[in-house]
Amino acid sequence: MIVKMLIERYISAKKVKPVNVNQLLDFATYCYLNNHLTIGQYKSLSRELMLRGATKPDFYFEEETPELIS
């Protein structure tokens, strides 16, 4: 799937145009998690969107040490 097709799918689902590439990346993730994209399609789209300036949220990269429950 190319980015243009993702934009068309986004408009069809949301009834508005995406404002930025981050919205498209979030939508691609949503589609992948709901089995509308294969892992190969998702990786290709996320790579292309990141080249266009998309970023994952900060909390996505945070490494937290799990707390031990006593």
Description:
By secondary structure, the chain is an all-alpha fold. It has one domain. 60% of the residues lie in helices and 0% in strands. The chain has 4 helices and no strands. It is elongated. The mean pLDDT is 88.
Entry summary:
With 70 residues, the protein is mainly alpha-helical. 60% of the residues lie in helices and 0% in strands.
Secondary structure elements and their pairing?
Elements: H1 3-14, H2 21-33, H3 39-51, H4 58-61
Helix pairs in contact: 2-3
Shape, per Cα inertia axes: elongated
Overall tally of structural domains: 1
Mean pLDDT: 88
Strand residue content: under 5%
Which descriptors apply to this entry?
70 residues, mainly alpha, 4 helices, 60% helix, 0% strand, elongated, YppF family protein
